[in-house]
Amino acid sequence: MLHIDSAPSTPGKVKMEKSSYFFTRGGGARWHYSLAKLTVWSFAFLALILIFFLRSPAPSTITSAADPSRRSLRNYNWGGSAWEKRVRASARARSSNGLTVLVTGAAGFVGTHVSSALKRRGDGVLGIDNFNDYYDPSLKRARQALLERTGVFIVEGDINDEALLRKLFEVVPFTHVMHLAAQAGVRYAMENPGSYVHSNIAGFVNLLEVCKSVNPQPAIVWASSSSVYGLNTKVPFSEKDRTDQPASLYAATKKAGEEIAHTYNHIYGLSLTGLRFFTVYGPWGRPDMAYFFFTKDILKGKQIAIFEAANHGTVARDFTYIDDIVKGCLGALDTAEKSTGSGGKKRGPAQLRVFNLGNTSPVPVSELVSILERLLKVKAKRNIMKLPRNGDVQYTHANISYAQRELGYKPTTDLQSGLKKFVRWYLNYYSDGKKAVE
Ligand SMILES: NC(=O)c1ccc[n+]([C@@H]2O[C@H](COP(=O)([O-])OP(=O)(O)OC[C@H]3O[C@@H](n4cnc5c(N)ncnc54)[C@H](O)[C@@H]3O)[C@@H](O)[C@H]2O)c1
Predict the structure, then answer these.
(1) How far does residue 312's CA lie from ligand 1's centre (Å)?
(2) Phi, psi of 318 (to 5 degrees)
(3) Tens digits of per-residue pLDDT, 63-122?
(4) Are residues 13 and 118 both part of a single domain?
(5) Beta bridge partners of 100
(6) Could you tell which of 72, 109, 319 is best to mutate to test the pocket of ligand 1, judged by most ligand atoms within 8 Å of the CB?
(7) Does 107 share its domain with 36?
(8) Where in the numbering of this chain does the NAD-dependent epimerase/dehydratase domain appear (predicted)?
(9) How far apart are CA 229 and CA 245, in angstroms?
(10) How many angstroms separate the alpha carbon of residue 104 from the centre of ligand 1?
């Protein structure tokens, strides 16, 4: 600190002193003396600059997410004629009336299942995913390999990359976007809030900006979440219930997404359908979700934390099997009307919808553990704990009558049968520490 205080504060000051020595009675020794002094001052000044840069704090994740000029997008390799050829081939529908769908978050749990179902029935599908390391990226790579075998190419990139999205629409006139890319997880929001702003808000807006300006505009189906019901206690949750009391930042970003969707529908005529998924589970699932890490920990003989609410209240979830969710997504895509805008301008009213996609039969988490114990043939070491206030809610239960009516949505898999399929996949995938692709 001492030499910071004694050093000149601006380069101008050094210059001023230097010139005053030049223009006073100059003797040779005096001139040498002033040159030496100037050199010392210059070094001190440079040292000061160095210290300043070394000590300045790195921008926080929130700042960098909020400020586009500072937001760091990893450098992904895309472009070139071979790349465009792959993009076109993947997005080509088998028949002329097939959909051409851009699936964001395609290497994710739901994205992989939806992409593969669309491809199987003959639609053209192109995926995009940034393969972030929120959970083990090797699982995302294994899903990518699975999709590649069915003819789905996943472009590696971020939905915040406007140039990349524009390029994709230039190469393929997508009729639909299935937007599943997001920062998921309720508790992680306290650890890394910036990642939720980056993907769920900035990324969504970037995607909508591109979609509104292309011709023809695609219809967009996107994943909201049951978490928007937050502290709502009226059950079962209906789309008409209040959603203005989110219990986590994750929920707040999903709710923000619903409002943002309203805006782009209202101003630009984009056709937008939001799907509020209720705790999706199944093969190729997400390792950060309870059914997944309970399985891992039970097999390892590790204690698992089972939460209960105040006064020994039951914590329960409306667990929904992945195949049912996929049917709901396809139903939403098939019933989505065309967007009405062109040239970035609205030409008429466009469709705006929000649906619950749940199972309508909540199961206590302790019952989930009992089913896993039976399937794994291992007794769990249960540690009953109070539900912490970090974003989780006590109870979720979907009213699905609207989706039933409009999308023909009808879940058919109960928790016991769905977990059986999950456990079979899990044991196969992680057998002998090897990742066998089913
Ligand atoms: N699984 C559930 O129970 C559940 C419940 C409610 C809502 N949702 C929503 O459904 C969607 C899919 O969820 P999931 O369970 O498949 O999650 P997931 O994390 O497995 O999939 C999301 C994918 O998006 C990718 N991604 C994230 N940010 C991105 C970005 N900026 N650019 C490009 N790719 C990005 C990730 O790498 C990941 O592969 C998400 O929007 C999620 O919020 C899921």
Answers:
(1) 32
(2) -90, 75
(3) 334 444 334 577 788 999 999 999 999 999 999 999 999 999 999 999 999 999 999 999
(4) no
(5) 124
(6) 109
(7) no
(8) 101-338
(9) 7
(10) 9
